[in-house]
Amino acid sequence: MPSTLRFRSPYRGEKNALVVPRTPKSPRGEYTGAPVPAESSTSRRKPLTALFGVLLVTAALSFALFSYRHKLAPTFPTGPSAYWKTNGAAPATSRIKMFAPSLGELPSVFADRYEFQLQGAKGDRAWLRMFPKGDGRISVQHPRRYGLPLSAAAVDGDGHPVADTEIYDVAVVRQLECLAFIRQILIDYDHEEHPHVHEKAHVFHCLDHVRQALLCAADTTLEPTRDRGVVSSPQSPHHYVGHQKTVADRAGGLQSAVHTCKNWTAVRTWIEENRAVGSQ
């Protein structure tokens, strides 16, 4: 039976070189079988050339698409969090001049402030002193320049509309108001005064609002694990000391987690300086 081996004809110089099947059992050592035309080196290179061409075209198209994407869509989402569902597409803030200036940051250690945990007049005063003058409302001229949405029109001291000026609420003040409202509901429950239906609905609205604010800030500071304390009144010797009861405290040290926070004093001053006309 003929072997499947092939070898090139000795007539290498001819254009129609032949490759014939080899039959080693022939008694005269002759070659038998029909001659088979050999593939030229040019024909063997054609598939490799075509494959190389396809790869080259693919690489060129990929580079062109990459360059086009960065030239025309520099703010295209680049991470999975950019595709989380929201209530609407957020504007590209990198292209918008922000109305609020950069007010700096400060290192801060969280600690229990007992006056904010008290009921009654002392606790009320602590919460009221925290709010800036003007009810957290500021006036902004030409708000579209800052990419701000449409809001209520600003008025002057006589109640006349001010051209190209609108009123906006500062988010942090609204969030603090929500916390103050939740505090009041807790105090009412403690005195067996249950909220009305609309107040109860507003409480859950506030909880959701503060929840979103916390996720927006997403403070990733690492805090030492605390022991479970005893919840009681601040005057009790067994009062839960919260953030102050840390691993370092048990070891006799005074170290606590340091957060990087916005300068609230500067923020409050900026709010008061830009408060809307008529806001107390």
UniProtKB/TrEMBL annotation:
Keywords: Membrane, Oxidoreductase, Transmembrane, Transmembrane helix
Keyword Transmembrane helix attributed: yes
Recorded superkingdom: Eukaryota
Stated name of the protein: Oxidase ustYa
Organism of this sequence: Fonsecaea pedrosoi CBS 271.37
Gene Ontology terms, MF aspect: oxidoreductase activity
Family named by the database record: Belongs to the ustYa family.
Entry keyword annotation includes Nucleus: no
